[in-house]
What does this fold into?
Amino acid sequence: MQEITGLELSPKKVEYLKFLLKKGGLVKTTDISNELNVDPSTSTKTITDLSESGYVNHVPYRGVQLTEMGKQYA
It folds into this structure.
C-alpha cells in the first residue's frame, strides 16, 4: 500500500470518506446526498471517482462501502 500524505483527495471527497466511516457498512447514495447536501448526481459522480481510485466499493442501486484503503485514509 502506498503512503498516505493527506493530499491525494479534495476536501469534499474526504468528507465522503469520513461520513462512510462514521456510518459503517453499506450506505445508500441517497443518504450520502442528504447528509452532505449535494445533488444525487453529484454524489454518484464523486462515489464513482472514489471507486475508480480504490477508496470505496460501489454497487449501483445497493450502496457504497469503504475499502481498506478508504478506511485508512478516512
Observations:
- DSSP finds four helices and two strands in the chain.
- The beta strands are 56-59, 63-66.
- The chain has a mean pLDDT of 89.
- The longest strand covers residues 56-59.
